[in-house]
Amino acid sequence: MMVEFRKAVLPWEAADLWKLDLEIFGKDAFDEELWLRLESYWIVVDGRVAGCAAFIHDVEFQEDSAFLVSPWKSPGFLGRAPSHCFLTH
After folding, report:
1. Could you tell me where the DSSP H helices lie in 1-89?
2. For the chain, what is the domain count?
3. Beta bridge partners of 51
4. Domain with 28 in it: what CATH number?
5. How far apart are CA 59 and CA 74, in angstroms?
6. Any bridge partners for residue 6, and if so which?
7. Domain encompassing residue 77
8. Which among 12, 83, 2, 79 is positioned nearest to 44, based on CA atoms?
């Protein structure tokens, strides 16, 4: 299994990130315009989008840092691609 983070191309892919967020979280999804302020990545498994992740830089509690807002996993990949493969250090 090949897992990769592919940086989202903003502003062009913001609507697609938002649509995936809606698919996963429904009414709790981020506003579309928030995606324009985040550093966003597609989570790609074997060439198919499996989810996305967003980071906020230089958050209040630590300068020169990046805070992972949340990783998202598309419902179509639940139970298929292990979540621990998404985030490795």
Report:
1. 14-25
2. 1
3. 43, 73
4. 3.40.630.30
5. 27
6. 42
7. 3-85
8. 2
Tokens of 88: 């490795």
pLDDT digits (tens, 9 = 90+) for 29-81: 888 888 888 888 998 888 988 888 888 766 665 666 555 565 555 656 655 54
Residue 11: is the preceding peptide bond cis (ω within 30°)? yes
- Which amino acid is it at 74? S
What count of other Cβ atoms lies within 10 Å of the Cβ of residue 8?
20
Task: Please name the residue that has the structure tokens 């989202």.
Answer: 8
Write the CA distances from 19 to 7, 46, 58, 60, 82, integer angstroms. 17, 21, 27, 29, 23
Nearest CA to 40 out of 52, 58, 23 is that of 52
